[in-house]
């Protein structure tokens, strides 16, 4: 069953009417199919109009939509011969971060992703995509393995941030995130990160310090959530829409600031409306970027990566 966001209420009403008509018996002399077609066209136009002028706060809602495709969905669709790998070889396995080896269009790759879960059971299993130190240390282990065997790394980012619990802090959360960023920046194989939903704080940067950072059109990427920002600056979570505007967390803004490299278009109404088409579009974008990066040797790749990050924020400085 499709879940509608607050601002989608006009579309929800139309689609409910369409569903009601489809389940009605066709009265004699009444052409229900024509009415369904008319309402469907009206619904599509309204949906397109809504999504053409989304505010940053509305994009936050879309990025967090429970029915958007998750990291496991991208792995199932894009990666063949996938073999999951678990554990950090120090403490344990963190299921908030999934990872393993497989083939992307017949190219051997290492895949890492933050996984939120799709229902209550899987959300609890994956801790809502908020990783502990052992999750980032697992990512480090997999990236170093990819470097050793000369395999590109693909990461899929969708997290509100790293787990803020006392247990995580006690096991070195900040150090694990810093080491993961360091590993991203030092491996001599192509690293392509895709923000598929919410890219929150250091928990996202730990997997997205890449040669190419791709981002879905309605995804968000920010140093802090709008709610947390509003609580700190105004001591009022209701100011979250204002914070979302100020944080410049949309794909369009981040592309302008050269924090991301590419925006991937979503189906009208967001990735949740057509997950398969979204995943195919992401796969095509990754394939194109991987072809561009593959000819580069290790030192040249490192130099380009270094230049990319040093250039952020430099435009306009004297």
How would you concisely characterize the structure shown here?
The protein has 318 residues and is an alpha/beta fold. The protein has helices spanning 9-22, 32-52, 56-63, 71-78, 120-125, 133-148, 166-170, 173-186, 201-208, 226-233, 240-247, 251-256, 275-293, 298-311; strands at residues 79-84, 97-104, 107-114, 153-159, 191-200, 212-216, 220-222, 262-264.
List descriptors.
318 residues; 2-enoyl-CoA Hydratase, Chain A, domain 1; 2 domains; 49% helix
Q: Which CATH class of the largest domain is shown?
A: Alpha Beta
Instruction: Give the overall form.
Output: globular
- Given helix and strand content, the structural type is alpha/beta
SS elements, strand count: 8
Let me know the CATH homologous superfamily of the largest domain. Answer: 2-enoyl-CoA Hydratase, Chain A, domain 1
| Mean pLDDT rating | 92
- For the record, the count of structural domains works out to 2
H/E element string? Answer: HHHHEEEHHEHHEHEEHHHEHH
Low-confidence stretches: none
Going by CATH, the architecture of the largest domain would be Alpha-Beta Complex
- Compute the CA-based radius of gyration: 21 Å
Helix content: 40-55%
Topology-level CATH name of the largest domain: 2-enoyl-CoA Hydratase, Chain A, domain 1
Query: Largest sheet at a glance?
Result: 8 strands, mixed
Please give the count of helices: 14
User: What fraction strand?
Assistant: 15-25%
Amino-to-carboxy terminus distance: 54 Å
């Amino acid at each position: 069953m499709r879940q509608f966001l607050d601002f989608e209420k006009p579309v929800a009403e139309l689609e409910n009417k369409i569903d009601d008509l489809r389940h009605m018996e066709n009265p004699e002399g009444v052409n229900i199919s024509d009415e369904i077609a008319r309402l469907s066209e009206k619904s599509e136009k309204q949906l397109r109009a809504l999504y053409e002028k989304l505010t940053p706060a509305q994009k936050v809602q879309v990025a967090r939509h429970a029915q958007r495709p998750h990291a496991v969905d991208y792995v199932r669709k894009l990666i063949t011969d996938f073999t999951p790998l678990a554990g950090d070889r120090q403490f344990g396995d963190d299921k908030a971060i999934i990872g393993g080896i497989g083939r992307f269009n017949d190219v051997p790759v290492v895949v890492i992703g933050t996984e939120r879960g799709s229902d209550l059971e899987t959300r609890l299993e994956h801790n809502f995509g908020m990783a502990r130190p052992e999750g980032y240390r697992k990512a480090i282990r997999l990236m170093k393995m990819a470097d050793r065997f000369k395999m590109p790394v693909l990461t899929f980012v969708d997290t509100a941030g790293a787990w803020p619990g006392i247990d995580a802090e006690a096991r070195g959360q900040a150090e694990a995130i810093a080491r993961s960023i360091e590993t991203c920046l030092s491996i001599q194989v192509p690293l392509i990160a895709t923000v598929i939903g919410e890219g929150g704080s250091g928990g996202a940067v730990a997997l997205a310090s890449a040669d190419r950072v791709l981002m879905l059109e309605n995804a968000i990427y920010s140093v802090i959530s709008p709610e947390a920002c509003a609580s700190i600056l105004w001591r009022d979570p209701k100011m979250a829409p204002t914070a979302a505007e100020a944080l410049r967390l949309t794909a369009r803004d981040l592309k302008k600031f050269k924090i991301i490299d590419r925006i991937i278009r979503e189906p009208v109404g967001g990735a949740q409306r057509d997950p398969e088409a979204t995943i195919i579009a992401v796969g095509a974008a990754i394939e194109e970027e991987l072809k561009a990066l593959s000819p580069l040797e290790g030192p040249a790749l490192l130099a380009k990566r270094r230049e990319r990050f040093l250039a952020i924020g430099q435009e306009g400085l004297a």
